[in-house]
Amino acid sequence: MKAFRPRLRPELLDDLAEAFVWYEERAEGIGQALVRAFFAAVALATRQPLLYRNVHGEFRRVLLRRYPYWLYYIVEGDEVVFFLFYPAKRDPARIGRILSRRQTGGGQIQVSGEG
């Protein structure tokens, strides 16, 4: 079986931080459980990234266990690149636009002095 490495995009971590705060404001500890579920889903998708079907072009997704969130990713060579952490109940029409923007470089961290 081919080994894959995970790569988490910075904007994905922003998505996770926002969800963490939302859950922690409701009850202490729930946000921490969300983060554990998030990293369990990352590990699962990294171990078997081709198990999940394409849903938006080359993007695949995995549903978190116990939380209504999708984790969107693509496979690039030996990497599984995670782009979006998105509530399953939120407007699905926005997902394609967000993924397209993030894939084309929107939200990339710019290093000063480049360019």
Could you write a compact summary of the structure shown?
With 115 residues, the protein is α+β, with helices and mostly antiparallel strands.
Count of individual beta strands: 5
- The mean pLDDT is 88
Write down the oligomeric state: single chain
Output the radius of gyration.
Answer: 14 Å
Kindly report the CATH topology. YaeB-like fold
Total tally of structural domains:
1
Main sheet: strand order: 1-5-4-3-2
Number of helices: 3
What fraction strand? 25-35%
Give the helix/strand class: alpha+beta
How are helices and strands ordered from N to C?
EHHEEEEH
Describe the protein.
There is one protein chain. By secondary structure, the protein is α+β, with helices and mostly antiparallel strands. The chain has helices spanning 10-26, 30-47, 93-103; strands at 5-8, 54-56, 59-63, 69-76, 79-87.
List the helices and strands and how they pair.
Blueprint: E1 5-8, H1 10-26, H2 30-47, E2 54-56, E3 59-63, E4 69-76, E5 79-87, H3 93-103
Parallel strand pairs: 1-5
Antiparallel strand pairs: 2-3, 3-4, 4-5
List descriptors.
5 strands, YaeB-like fold, 115 residues, disordered C terminus, globular, single chain, alpha+beta, five-stranded mixed sheet
